[in-house]
Amino acid sequence: MPYFAQPTLMRVLGIETSCDETGLALYDTEAGLLAHALHSQVAMHAEYGGVVPELASRDHIRRALPLLKQVLAEAGADLAGIDAIAYTQGPGLAGALLVGASLANGLGLALGVPTIGIHHLEGHLLSPLLSDPKPEFPFVALLVSGGHTQLMRVDGVGRYELLGETVDDAAGEAFDKTAQLLGLGYPGGPALARLAEQGDAYKFKLPRPMLNSHNLDFSFAGLKTAALTLVRKEGPAAAADIAAGFQEAAVEVLAAKCLAALKQTGLKRLVVAGGVGANRSLRSRLDAEAEQKRFEVFYPPLALCTDNGAMIAFAGAMRLAEAQNRGGGFTVKPRWDLGSLAAPT
């Protein structure tokens, strides 16, 4: 069932083009998520070992309208049935963001419906509310998406307090970079996790950066460097054990910081969102901790852990339902601090 404090009936189109995935979705505040479609550019960027911004922008242009038609067909809807359009306004690649902003504002003008710019991380932050069961406010959120690793206290839509964040590499970056060191290609996080299943997580002693820092900040650059040292010393034969050791260390730090955040805030609900939130080892560790320490943990559906239009449509619907339409205008924000969002008082 959809999540709303007040009944507000509308259909919101969501458009996500912040980086290397084109996502569109249609969310109905009464019926829930009607349809969503996603195109990943991973195969294209893999040839270059990372995202090429110009290629990403051009591919979004090619994919957006066909995906829109696909979503409408799957939902049994048409353009006339759209009541509002939400799009990722930032942060992200400027050119890629402009594609989504152009499509959203063009459609909004043509259809005479409002558009709303959504913070990419707010989309991830609220995406577990699309799952069943869903968390109630307030909760602690671990955001582990791409270049972001943050712990937030969430008291409602737009009511976010930053508790801690990474001081260097984010968890996702460290996974991808370590995977590249192991020769697993781009993006390497999921490949590293698969390889780790074949290894011994305790064969090599890897650091747990900032595990005992007495704050809620993270650091993963040192762990990545330690993995590099092992790769050079042990060679390809030890790849599975290095992958397993790296993942175990990263998961231990993430889980420990989550527990510390729950203790600090006194809350009993934890939300995990973002690409690394799909990691099975992390989910298993947090599920076990939740059972032992008697708190609840929530995740978005696996299909919605990566960047997607559904989370943008949903976040837009929640903002509009609570009269928090900041407006978008024809602007994008490649750099945008999530903490700057605030509900009107």
What features would you highlight for this structure?
single chain, 345 residues, 2 domains, five-stranded mixed β-sheet, 10 helices
Q: What would your notes on this structure say?
A:
With 345 residues, the protein is of the alpha/beta class. The chain has 2 domains: 11-126 and 304-340, ATPase, nucleotide binding domain (Nucleotidyltransferase, domain 5); 136-299, ATPase, nucleotide binding domain (Nucleotidyltransferase, domain 5), CATH 3.30.420.40. 41% of the residues lie in helices and 19% in strands. It contains 10 helices and 10 strands. The strands form 2 sheets. Strands 3-2-1-4-5 form a 5-stranded mixed β-sheet, sandwiched between helices. Strands 8-7-6-9-10 form a 5-stranded mixed β-sheet, sandwiched between helices. Helix 2 (53-75) runs parallel beside helix 3, helix 5 packs across helix 6 (189-196) and helix 8 (239-265) runs parallel beside helix 9. It is globular, with a radius of gyration of 20 Å.
